[in-house]
Every structure is written in structure tokens, then in C-alpha cells.
Write a structure and sequence with these properties.
The structure is a single chain. By secondary structure, this protein is α+β, with helices and mostly antiparallel strands. Helices cover about 45% and strands about 25% of the residues. Strands 3-2-1-4-5 form a 5-stranded antiparallel beta sheet. A hairpin with a 5-residue loop joins strand 1 and strand 2 (about 50-60).
Length: about 200
């Protein structure tokens, strides 16, 4: 039974970690090779007609030669709450920052999400912002993620402490009273049954 408990706990921790890894911002240093607009299928209507939409893309190459593709879509008011409404401006910045291997211009692309190539037409991380980098080996410290996760842990510990105090103050006395009533009732019926014998 302990294996099932620990297995379930590990699955829950894995799902939470994957959720935060997908949703929290990440930054990559690369050079932009191209930007494009492509039409993608988002599903079908009940009668089988495909539903399509235009998606902007940013293509890049890492210093080690690895490739990466980003989508460039507004998040609007939806989750995750980055409130991005300027994908056209970001596409313009990406076009302006394009470079070649002979004269690379390194940029930092802030994004969220994962790159999954085998899922349908592919899953792309969404670019949130672009800025010039000092070079391909610029050090990037994820301060937002550190502060956000630290505050989240503190909030969870505070809520846990409040719940423990409330349980000790309000729930435990009621449970103790119920236990005492049950014990008294049980003792009474034991005495009654013993007296009848």
C-alpha cells in the first residue's frame, strides 16, 4: 500500500511540476533566422469543414547549432495570464533582428510552453518578448520564477499553518467531545447489559 501512496504522490508532484514548467516564462539565447505567418488547422466544424487560423512564427538557431521554432500569438486575457496583445509588434522586432551565421545578432526570447514535434501539426512555445543579448553565453537568472515559486511556497505554508490552528481550536475540541459522548454512551450500555445478566 505504501508503494501505491508514494506512486500517487509522485504522479501528483510530476503533474504540478509539468504545469509550472509549461506555464512559467523561460528565456533562450539564439539568433533569429526568419519569421513567417502560416495557416494552421485548429479543428473541424460538425459538418467536417476545417477551422483554420493564421499563426505568426519566429525561427531561430542556438549557438550550438540547435534549431527552435516559436509561435507568436496574443495571449489576451486567457491563461496563462501574460496579457500579450502585441504579436504584430513582436513580429516586427523579430524581422528587424534577423541575422546570419556570418554576422550573428544574438537575442533573448522570453517564452512559455514546450516544443513538441510529434503532436499533430506540432506544439510551439509562445514568444512573449525579444531583446538583444550581450552574446550567446549571457547569464540568465530566472528571477521571476524564483520569486513566484518562493511566494507560492510561503503562501502554502501559511495556509497550512492557519488550517492547523483552526483544526486545533475548532475541530479537535468537537471531535474530543464526540469521542467522550461515544465513550460515555458505550459505558452506559455496557453497564446496562451487565446489570441484566
Amino acid at each position: 500500500m505504501a508503494y501505491v501512496k508514494w506512486g500517487f504522490l509522485l504522479i501528483i508532484i510530476g503533474v504540478i511540476a509539468a504545469f509550472f514548467h509549461y506555464s512559467l516564462p523561460q528565456r533562450d539565447i539564439l539568433r533569429i533566422t526568419d519569421s513567417d505567418v502560416a495557416r494552421m488547422n485548429t479543428g473541424t466544424t460538425p459538418d467536417g469543414t476545417p477551422i483554420t487560423r493564421d499563426v505568426r512564427f519566429i525561427f531561430g538557431i542556438y549557438a550550438d547549432g540547435g534549431e527552435m521554432e516559436f509561435r507568436n500569438e496574443d495571449t489576451g486575457w486567457g491563461f496563462p495570464w501574460y496579457f500579450k496583445f502585441d504579436s504584430a509588434r513582436l513580429a516586427n522586432q523579430a524581422a528587424d533582428l534577423k541575422s546570419t551565421a556570418d554576422a550573428p545578432r544574438w537575442v533573448v526570447i522570453r517564452h512559455y510552453g514546450w516544443r513538441i514535434t510529434w503532436w499533430g501539426e506540432g506544439v510551439f512555445p509562445n514568444a512573449l518578448s525579444i531583446r538583444p543579448a550581450e552574446g550567446p553565453d549571457e547569464s540568465l537568472t530566472p528571477w521571476f520564477n524564483i520569486i513566484f515559486l518562493s511566494l507560492l511556497v510561503i503562501a502554502i505554508l501559511v495556509i497550512r499553518r492557519i488550517l492547523i490552528i483552526l483544526r486545533k481550536k475548532h475541530v479537535d475540541p468537537v471531535v474530543d467531545k464526540i469521542d467522550a459522548e461515544i465513550e460515555e454512551t458505550t459505558s452506559f450500555w455496557r453497564r446496562v447489559f451487565r446489570g441484566k445478566k
